[in-house]
Design goal:
Elements (H helix, E strand, L loop, with lengths): L1 H58 L4 H15 L4 H20 L5 H4 L2 H36 L3 H5 L25
Helix pairs in contact: 1-2, 1-3, 1-5, 2-3
């Protein structure tokens, strides 16, 4: 009889560990999927930036530094995959793109350009999708981190190689209003 109790306890422990491990796998996959969604939206933005720069550069020749900064940041962002490091670059891209979009107020011919208006509309859509994807990613990270840090899961998280994931955070400068000086 005692032997059955021991085997039953071992079986229950094994089932419990398997359930905890599978929870970590599911949550980890959810974080990776959410990051992939963010990455797709950022790639959409990166694809639009060169077209926007090309259209604007024809109208605003003396804004070359701003346009060059956007292109440089885009190039750097394409080579990063860390959410925390990428967030810093993406905030810079977002601020500069917003400054480019505000240039239309100083260039009436740019404001009437159908190419510019089309790109502007597409960028607004992409920015909305990026915000949604970031919120979804951060929600997935929160749920995963809760599991990694809460008892009893915490006892098994690190031995199984599961660690706290990084949030996609906006830098403090990204929260300020965009300044355009001509």
């Amino acid at each position: 009889m005692m032997e059955w109790v021991v085997w039953g306890s071992i079986f229950l422990a094994f089932v419990g560990i398997a359930l905890v491990f599978n929870t970590f796998v599911r949550l980890s996959n959810q974080v990776r999927t959410a990051w992939s969604d963010v990455d797709v939206q950022l790639a959409r933005r990166h694809d639009l930036v060169p077209s926007l720069v090309k259209v604007v550069s024809g109208f605003a020749n003396h804004e070359k530094q701003l346009l060059n900064d956007v292109v440089r940041l885009r190039g750097e962002a394409l080579n990063l995959d860390s959410p925390s490091k990428l967030a810093v670059l993406e905030d810079g891209i977002q601020q500069n793109v917003n400054r480019i979009l505000l240039l239309q107020e100083s260039y009436p011919e740019l404001k009437s350009s159908t190419n510019f208006l089309k790109l502007q509309h597409q960028l607004v859509e992409v920015e909305d999708e990026i915000q949604y994807a970031r919120r979804f990613y951060n929600g997935a990270v929160r749920e995963y981190n809760d599991a990694v840090e809460m008892f009893p899961y915490r006892l098994l998280a690190r031995p199984f190689g599961f660690h706290v994931a990084d949030y996609f955070k906006a830098e403090s400068t990204a929260k300020n209003a965009v300044n355009v000086s001509l």
